[in-house]
Prior knowledge:
Distance between the termini: 30 Å
Helix content: 10-25%
Largest sheet: 6 strands, antiparallel
Structural class: alpha+beta
Number of domains: 1
Number of helices: 2
CATH superfamily: Hotdog Thioesterase
Radius of gyration: 16 Å
CATH class: Alpha Beta
Amino acid sequence: MRFHTRKWIKPEDLNPNGTLFGGRLLEWIDEEAALYAIIQLENPKVVTKYMSEINFTASANPGDIVEIGLEVSKFGKTSIDLKCEVRNKMTHQTIITIENIIMVNLSPDGKPLPHGKTQVEYVSDRLKDTKK
């Protein structure tokens, strides 16, 4: 799993118990999944279709740094399926796992659009191809 984004837990991210609010973490995951799908599918019109069971295994405290990891499980015709893990950057303790997040590629009129992708591509490789 590649960890793409780090977040610093600040007072505005806390729940009444003084730990990271789960809704805030889900917001960060959804945004990261969307950005990842947009980059992979090369289309800014992507939406979240589905998130499987969310498994919170630990909490995060003020001042902790968490990192969000994503990996592709499969490419569908119009979608990309992702797995997610969020962990404490310093201890590598897992905070949350999500086994399946489905992001759908959309046409300009908002309908599912085939993307033609079959494997993970890295932007650095795409840039090399344009310099030939």
